[in-house]
Every structure is written in structure tokens, then in C-alpha cells.
């Protein structure tokens, strides 16, 4: 599965996120344990580089560093239940599954969801539920969640997500106009109010509506 240079690329990523993003502990162990090569398109020379990759269905996979930073922003504990909106390749899903007791991940494209499920399970992770849905209203059927991550942007956080967060829960999403640069913001629920922490800039697309009927 590994290609020449993968170990060096992983080591460089771990050094960057440790020194620049202050990532440590269980998440670092998860990054080392999950083979990113399994999740990137064939022929990619450096799966750990500072660039995104195209996925089927016109979707995009974030860079390894962005993926790790998103997972780090959630501050996941072993007892947490996590909702992920936008399964994509399944790489972030696998990181979350290494950290949490349960992950529910939504993807509007069956093609992506099926492939991601196979990859995640090949990593001996059986605590993930895959659902085909657009995720624009969260997933009330399994709420409340301790942690929520959205691989997409909102101009403002929809009320539906607020209602699906447990007490003390955190949600990480890109906030801003869909046609420009947004800010990844961590929303932490404190009783009836939210504590907002801007983290880093990204360019994420707004979530598309509806399940994909063909792909």
C-alpha cells in the first residue's frame, strides 16, 4: 500500500502539525495509524502534501494538514459521539473513528459513501454508521451529538445543528460567503449560549441540497 516517500511525507506532516498547530496525543497516534495513501486518488506522489485532491462526483479532498486541523479543533474524547457532514474519501471519518466511541457520517453521493465505507472498514474500524443524505439539516434521528464537523460552508450556522448538540458540545464548520474565503469556526455550546473561536481560513463550498440520484 505504501509508496516510496510516504513515510517521509508522514513524518513531515507530523512535525508541521506538532510544531505549528500544537497537535499531540491521541490524534497524532491516529494520523500515524491511518494510511492516507488508501484514501487518496491513484498515482498521487505525496498524499501528505499541502494540497487538496479531486474526488469522484466533482468533490474535493482536503489536504492532510487541513484534515488533521479539523479533527484537532473538535477536541474529541473517547466517549464522544460524532456527526460528520460530508464523508468524501473517508479519511477524516477514519481519524474520527479512532478517537470517538461512535461516528455517524453523511454523504449525498452513494458512490463516495460506499467507497469510503470499504476504506474505513479495511482499517479495522467498525464504529462508523454511513448514511446517504445531504446533511444540510444535520441528522436528528441520532441526535444529540457531542461533536459535529461540517465539510462545507454556511453564511451562518443553521438552527437545526444547534438543536442537535448535546450540552457542552462542539461544532466545527466554515462560516462565510460561499464564493470566497471562509473561516473555520469552533462553536462550543455553553448552556443557552455559544462560545465562538475563529481558527483558520479555508475555501469550502456550500453544501448541495438533496441526495444524488445517479452517482
What does this structure look like?
One of its GO terms (cellular component) is cytoplasm. GO terms for molecular function: protein-L-isoaspartate (D-aspartate) O-methyltransferase activity. Pfam families: PCMT. Helices cover 28% and strands 28% of the residues. It has a seven-stranded mixed β-sheet with strand order 5-4-3-6-7-8-9. The chain has helices at residues 6-20, 26-33, 64-74, 91-99, 110-122, 159-163, and strands spanning 53-54, 60-61, 81-85, 102-107, 128-132, 145-154, 165-175, 182-190, 193-202. The protein is an alpha/beta fold and 215 residues long. Helix 2 packs across helix 4 (91-99) and helix 3 (64-74) runs parallel beside helix 4. The relative contact order is 0.13.
List keywords for this structure.
215 residues, alpha/beta, Rossmann fold, two-stranded antiparallel sheet, 6 helices, 9 strands, 28% helix, globular, protein-L-isoaspartate (D-aspartate) O-methyltransferase activity, methyltransferase, Protein-L-isoaspartate O-methyltransferase
Arrangement of strands in the largest sheet: 5-4-3-6-7-8-9
Largest sheet descriptor: 7 strands, mixed
Mean pLDDT: 94
How many helices? The count is 6
What's the number of structural domains? 1
Could you name the CATH class?
Answer: Alpha Beta
Q: What is the CATH third-level topology name?
A: Rossmann fold
Radius of gyration: 16 Å
As a percent range, the share of helical residues equals: 25-40%
Question: Multimeric state of these chains?
Answer: single chain
Could you state the CATH homologous superfamily?
A: Vaccinia Virus protein VP39
Order of helices and strands: HHEEHEHEHEEHEEE
Query: Which structural class do you get from the secondary structure elements?
Result: alpha/beta
> pLDDT under 50 segments (min length 5)?
none
Give the overall silhouette.
globular
**Strand residue percentage:** 25-35%
Q: What's the count of strands?
A: 9
InterPro entries: PCMT, SAM-dependent_MTases_sf
Family: Belongs to the methyltransferase superfamily. L-isoaspartyl/D-aspartyl protein methyltransferase family.
Pfam family, one: PCMT
Protein name: Protein-L-isoaspartate O-methyltransferase
Amino acid at each position: 500500500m505504501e509508496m516510496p516517500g510516504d513515510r517521509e511525507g508522514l513524518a513531515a506532516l507530523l512535525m508541521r502539525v506538532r510544531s505549528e498547530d500544537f497537535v499531540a496525543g491521541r490524534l497524532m497516534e491516529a494520523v500515524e495509524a491511518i494510511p492516507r495513501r488508501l484514501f487518496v486518488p491513484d498515482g498521487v506522489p505525496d498524499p501528505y502534501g499541502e494540497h487538496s485532491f479531486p474526488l469522484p462526483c466533482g468533490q474535493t479532498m482536503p489536504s492532510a494538514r487541513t484534515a488533521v486541523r479539523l479533527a484537532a479543533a473538535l477536541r474529541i474524547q473517547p466517549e464522544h459521539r460524532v456527526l460528520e457532514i460530508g464523508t468524501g474519501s473517508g479519511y477524516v471519518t477514519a481519524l474520527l473513528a479512532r478517537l470517538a466511541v461512535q461516528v455517524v457520517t453523511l454523504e449525498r453521493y452513494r458512490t463516495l459513501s460506499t467507497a469510503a465505507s470499504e476504506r474505513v472498514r479495511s482499517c479495522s474500524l467498525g464504529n462508523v454508521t454511513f448514511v446517504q443524505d445531504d446533511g444540510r439539516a444535520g441528522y436528528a434521528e441520532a441526535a444529540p451529538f457531542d461533536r459535529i464537523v461540517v465539510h462545507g460552508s454556511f453564511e451562518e450556522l443553521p438552527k437545526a445543528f444547534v438543536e442537535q448538540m448535546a450540552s457542552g458540545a462542539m461544532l466545527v464548520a466554515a462560516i462565510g460567503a460561499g464564493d470566497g474565503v471562509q473561516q473555520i469556526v469552533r462553536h462550543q455550546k455553553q448552556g443557552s449560549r455559544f462560545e465562538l473561536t475563529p481558527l483558520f481560513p479555508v475555501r469550502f463550498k456550500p453544501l448541495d441540497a438533496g441526495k444524488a440520484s445517479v452517482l
